[in-house]
Amino acid sequence: MNTKTNIALVTGGSRGLGKNSALKIAQKGLDVIITYRSNREEAEAVVNEIKSMGRNAIAFQLDTKDIKSFDAFVKDVTSHLQESTGGTHIDYLINNAGTALYSPITEVTEEELDDVVDIHFKGVFFLTQKLLPFINDGGGIINVSSGLARFATPGSSIYGSIKAGVEMLTKYMAKELGSRKIKANVVAPGAIETDFGGGRVRDNEEVNAMVAGATALGRVGLPDDIGGVVAFLCTEDARWINGQRIEVSGGMFL
């Protein structure tokens, strides 16, 4: 009987979709490592909630824009794993951390573009690269994208375009890592009520109503609509899903 407990690492796991994903993954019986950028108190609250389920959890600070910090981060994570499990490996990497950018093409600055590229593409690429030696064969990578990589709404040209790049990168990951039986997939949420982007979808009644009207199921998404799909991809039931984009948007802009 295999009694090994799988381990998932969720970036940006202290709030929003990352928090919900971390909790849902723990409910599937996995131990969880989360990262947070600045709010340690929020992160520790998530860790404590996971521990209350009987699973192991820990939070590490990480700014996914600061690529030069990745070596030290990986060393800290693997040292923790060595001490707590006797090994250095994880099974699933969920690249979730991110920020929003709402700005028309005429107003986007080079600094804003660079920030989105660094956080959402370079950060995803190089963190995955650094962690690959420590992902078990047969494990998985889940990259969080967006419905904005499929449809265009004014003001999201940079964010949507970079997420489209992440989706193509995921296919290359699936292809190149197939020899290690590592799956790579995309989860692409639609518009969700969180504090993402300053709570734009959650708090702006006009935006909320527009999204609900454009969604077949007639409402805006909630974090609880997304985390379970991410968690499913961290289970044996999803072993034959690879190189796929799963949009979880309630049927937005069909």
Automatic annotation (TrEMBL):
Gene Ontology molecular function, alphabetical: oxidoreductase activity
Keywords, comma-separated and alphabetical: NADP, Oxidoreductase
Pfam family, one: adh_short_C2
Superkingdom as given in the UniProt entry: Bacteria
Keyword match Oxidoreductase: yes
Family note: Belongs to the short-chain dehydrogenases/reductases (SDR) family.
Protein name: Short-chain dehydrogenase
Organism: Chryseobacterium flavum
Lineage of the species this protein comes from: Bacteria, Pseudomonadati, Bacteroidota, Flavobacteriia, Flavobacteriales
